[in-house]
């Protein structure tokens, strides 16, 4: 079932999300794993990668991987393409203060391959 974690210490499995070349620069793409959609962002402008749930909590759309990347102060964020709600890519906090936050996941790059860290819930 659903996997989630916020810390590397809790990671139970590193899921191979594919080669880095599958993910557009300064953009995102989603993967399916165990029935869940995970958005992966290649924030090349900051030379950082992020992983979050793909579901936007506003209207329950699987769309965040197609969001626009940017920053708010020092906080990297994604703006949902539908109604422009924004979320921190580091903590998942809703930066508009009006919707639920989103889950974030550890991510790492090894040998030009993207891995997302997940924890299996009981
Ligand atoms: S569905 Fe994402 S902001 Fe409305």
Automatic annotation (TrEMBL):
InterPro entries: NasD-like, Rieske-like_NirD, Rieske_2Fe-2S, Rieske_2Fe-2S_sf. Transmembrane segments: none annotated. GO terms for biological process: nitrate assimilation. GO terms for molecular function: 2 iron, 2 sulfur cluster binding; metal ion binding; nitrite reductase [NAD(P)H] activity. Gene3D superfamilies: Rieske [2Fe-2S] iron-sulphur domain. The keyword Oxidoreductase applies. Keywords: 2Fe-2S, Heme, Iron, Iron-sulfur, Metal-binding, Nitrate assimilation, Oxidoreductase. Coiled coil: none annotated. Residues 15-116 form the Rieske domain. It comes from the Bacteria. PANTHER family: NITRITE REDUCTASE (NADH) LARGE SUBUNIT. This is Nitrite reductase small subunit NirD. The gene is nirD.
């Amino acid at each position: 079932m659903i996997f989630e974690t916020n810390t590397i210490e809790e990671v139970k499995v590193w899921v191979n999300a594919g080669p880095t070349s599958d993910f557009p620069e300064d953009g995102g793409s989603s993967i399916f794993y165990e029935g869940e959609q995970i958005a992966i962002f290649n924030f090349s402008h900051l030379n950082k990668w992020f992983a979050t749930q793909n579901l936007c909590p506003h209207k329950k759309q699987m769309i965040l991987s197609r969001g626009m990347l940017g920053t708010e102060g020092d906080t990297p964020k994604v703006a949902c393409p539908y109604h422009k709600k924004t979320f921190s890519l580091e903590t998942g906090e809703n930066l508009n203060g009006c919707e639920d936050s989103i889950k974030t996941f550890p991510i790492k790059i090894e040998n030009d391959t993207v891995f997302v860290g997940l924890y299996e819930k009981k």
